[in-house]
């Protein structure tokens, strides 16, 4: 499963990318507005930090202008993926852009029927918004299960399921169990995934016991330190 991060906050992206766990980034017009920066400048910065796919969304609503905007956006960097909304015009743009060799992420997907259309339009990714479904009392994860099942039945569907509008760790874990290809995670949720109280407690106890030994891995006796100069031995 690949992890994208769902933000346009360049500092957050830089910090999380340093973990080596970030495979890509998704942005949307609201996230760009929240960043307070110039769209193209923000995209340039993100693409310089993360070599994987970076989704940038068009803001036009008609096919011709969407394609024109997409062409400008793809000039920013090679790893730009164009996000289009799941509308008839968006899907027409998806087909046109895909045929030109541009990768497209069809966003604002809320039903299996829409996901089928996105696959037929040649989308590289479809983004079902699970948190927003949960918000209205529907079951976002059930939609992921449905789409994964449908896509799995048709090997000619090459569209990947990009789980979006993620609100918590359970969303990530359950989507992973279902075999979703990618999940785009808000920074706070990704940070929360590292945490477990037993990890903190266990580490605290190990360090306390280690301190009692008075030893240091880096301050070794001279004979052991000399071994550092030798190449590491391979394990069997
Ligand atoms: C996906 O690409 C969107 O940016 C995002 O996941 C929207 O999520 P939200 O419901 O938290 O705004």
- How many beta-strand runs? 8
Topology pattern, helix = H, strand = E: EHEHHEHEHEHEHHEHEHHH
Rg over C-alpha atoms, rounded to the nearest angstrom = 22 Å
Mean pLDDT: 95
| Helical residues, percent | 40-55%
Structural class: alpha/beta
At the fold tier of CATH, the topology name is TIM Barrel
Which spans have pLDDT < 50 for at least 5 consecutive residues?
A: none
What is the count of DSSP helices, taking H or I runs of 4+ residues? 12
Give me the oligomer status: single chain
- Quote the distance from N terminus to C terminus: 30 Å
Describe the protein's architecture and organization.
The chain has helices at residues 10-17, 29-35, 39-49, 63-74, 88-99, 112-120, 130-135, 140-152, 169-178, 187-193, 197-213, 222-227, and strands at 2-6, 24-26, 54-57, 80-85, 104-109, 125-128, 160-163, 182-185. It is an alpha/beta fold. The chain has one domain: Alpha-Beta Barrel (TIM Barrel). Helix 1 (10-17) packs parallel to helix 3 (39-49), helix 4 crosses helix 5 (88-99) and helix 6 runs parallel beside helix 8 (140-152). It is elongated, with a radius of gyration of 22 Å. The chain starts with a strand and ends in a 9-residue tail after the last helix. The structure holds erythose-4-phosphate.
């Amino acid at each position: 499963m690949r992890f994208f991060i769902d933000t346009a906050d360049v500092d957050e992206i830089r910090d999380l990318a340093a973990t080596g766990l970030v495979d890509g980034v998704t942005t949307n017009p609201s996230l760009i507005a929240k960043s307070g920066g110039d769209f193209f400048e923000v995209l340039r910065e993100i693409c310089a930090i993360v070599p994987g796919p970076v989704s940038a969304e068009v803001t036009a609503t008609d096919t011709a202008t969407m394609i024109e905007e997409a062409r400008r956006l793809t000039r920013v960097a090679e790893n730009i993926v164009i996000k289009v909304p799941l509308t008839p015009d968006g899907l027409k743009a998806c087909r046109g852009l895909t045929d030109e060799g541009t990768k497209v992420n069809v966003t604002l997907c809320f039903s299996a029927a829409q996901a089928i259309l996105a696959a037929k339009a040649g989308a590289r990714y479809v983004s079902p918004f699970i948190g927003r479904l949960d918000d209205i009392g529907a079951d976002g994860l059930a939609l992921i299960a449905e789409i994964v099942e449908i896509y799995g039945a048709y090997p000619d569907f090459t569209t990947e399921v990009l789980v979006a509008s993620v609100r918590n760790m359970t969303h990530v874990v359950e989507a992973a169990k279902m075999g979703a290809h990618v999940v785009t995670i808000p920074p706070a949720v990704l940070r929360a995934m590292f945490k477990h109280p037993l990890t903190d407690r266990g580490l605290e106890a190990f360090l306390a016991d280690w301190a009692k030994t008075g030893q240091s891995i880096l301050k070794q006796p001279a004979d052991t330190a000399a071994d550092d100069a030798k190449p590491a031995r391979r394990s069997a």
